[in-house]
Amino acid sequence: MVRVEGPAFIQTSAAGDRMRALPVPSWRRGPARAPVVVRVRLDVPRQTIEGIGGSLTEASAYVLAHRSAAERAELLDACFGPEGADLTLARTHIGSCDFTVQGRYDYAPVAGDTALAAFTLAPDRAGFAGATEPTYDVLPLLRDAFARQPALRLVGSAWTAPPWMKANGAYFDKGVAGGRLLPGHRGTYARYVARWVRELDALGVPVWAVTPVNEPLGVGGQWESMEMGPDEARDLIRDHLGPALVPLGVRILQYDQNRESIALEYARRVFEDSLCAAQVHGTAVHWYSATASARPDILDSLRFIAPGRSLVHTEGCVDAIASENNSPGGRFRGWSDPDWWWRAEATDWGWDWASAAERHWHPRYSPVDRYARDLVVGLRHGLTGWIDWNLVLDSRGGPNHQANRCAAPLMVDSTSGTVLRTPVFDVIAHVARYVRPGDRVLDTVVEGSRLAEDDFHAVAVRAADGRTVTVIAFNRSRVSHEAAVVVGDRHVRLRVPARALQTLRLDL
């Protein structure tokens, strides 16, 4: 999937640049003398890119359904079109999740229907009464995304099995737990997920990968969820989910929760079982365990446990925007103040709820910093793909049936129709437009004696055809830096302003 269009050098900054085109610097020979040096090793290729993208949820479909056809097309073109972010990877929910409008639905509504005779995707095509386009829902949204990006890779995640397959008989026990899959229904659940895959494929929506369940550690019963320990996950994949999905050409990404130490235990159980490991493509991770770090230590450990396997970030967002800090008086600060996205004033769920031992991972943070750091550092430490959470939400960070409101790259005021293209949209586009499936990340080292650890990040990626190398540099510090990008015996000189992100594509 090559489709790289547009300027070869762009910049986004706190000073107001938004993907501004810059003159491309010329190659130089000789020693690279600069305060900051980014060394790119063409002879040390690392992981192959699988895509960059965002999630297609019922909440996004709801917002889009309430816009005109032209407005809807403009938003989708911004995400998946060649003139927009040109996203290549996406995720959607299998059944309901917190970002469904009313929640509590699945595709097997008849209890005890182990043959899945009553299976139906009707909830995903039901639409919304009173909407501008009342028939618009998840399935039309998925088809619209594929119409713009036919090679889009879609990841599916169930937040829960249908209640009758679970020990608690419920989508979740509010404030208690999500409940566990009954061992006797592991096969039923695997067939249920496989049926969803086949039904979507018949509608022209191919599924690239599936995770066993979203967030198997649970969410304390706050919304649809299903707890699943490392041994349960291994057994489900090995004996049921793998046999059901692998013959369909669908990959399995195990785990699907935060970058923290428990992720390593899930990986060990899955990849140390040879029969299970043979059916697993890689690991899925989220970012909610830290706002101040991309957790490269966890990413490196996961690569060590499963070398050569895929490592996909499947969910992250600016969460907890309903909090008084992020939405004082009920009005989201990021809607009315574009500079807020650059300032270290946002707080996440951990600011209020993390344990004392974990609180240091959750300081106030800048959303732009979090996104840029996670993409650049994550790619340097093994990520093969990166997916944001909801691509489109309303100006309050919804709808969400449990008031778990979050920000999105594109936000739309439900009354006026005003669209906010947030600065994090630009950050994603800085990577997605230039880093394409099949490209190879290169060993990249940043040198600078005056740099603090988190001041300056960079990563380089070589195009699949070998003709170009793309360098993404993020200067998080409050001062500009003169930098040299060294590739072989040549280099280019850059000036990276304070609080700026640059993407540079160079011909080799």
Overview of this protein structure:
This protein has 508 residues and is α/β, with parallel strands linked by helices. It contains 12 helices and 21 strands. It has helices at 58-65, 69-80, 138-148, 186-202, 230-245, 261-271, 274-277, 296-305, 333-336, 349-353, 367-380, 423-432; strands at 9-13, 20-21, 28-29, 36-48, 51-55, 89-94, 153-158, 209-211, 251-258, 282-286, 310-315, 385-390, 392-394, 410-412, 419-421, 440-447, 456-462, 468-475, 481-487, 490-496, 500-507. It has a 10-stranded mixed beta sheet with strand order 2-1-21-18-17-16-4-19-20-3, covered by helices on one side. Strand 8 (209-211), helix 5 and strand 9 form a beta-alpha-beta unit. Helix 4 crosses helix 5 (230-245) and helix 6 (261-271) runs parallel beside helix 8.
Which class best fits the helix and strand makeup?
alpha/beta
How is the quaternary structure best described? single chain
Low-confidence stretches: none
Helical stretch tally? 12
Average pLDDT value? 97
Which strand order does the major sheet show?
Answer: 2-1-21-18-17-16-4-19-20-3
Question: What distance lies between the first and last C-alpha atoms, to the nearest angstrom?
Answer: 19 Å
In percent, how helical is the residue content? 10-25%
Q: Largest sheet, described in full?
A: 10 strands, mixed
β content, as a range? 15-25%
Radius of gyration: 22 Å
Shape summary:
globular
For the secondary structure, the number of strands is: 21
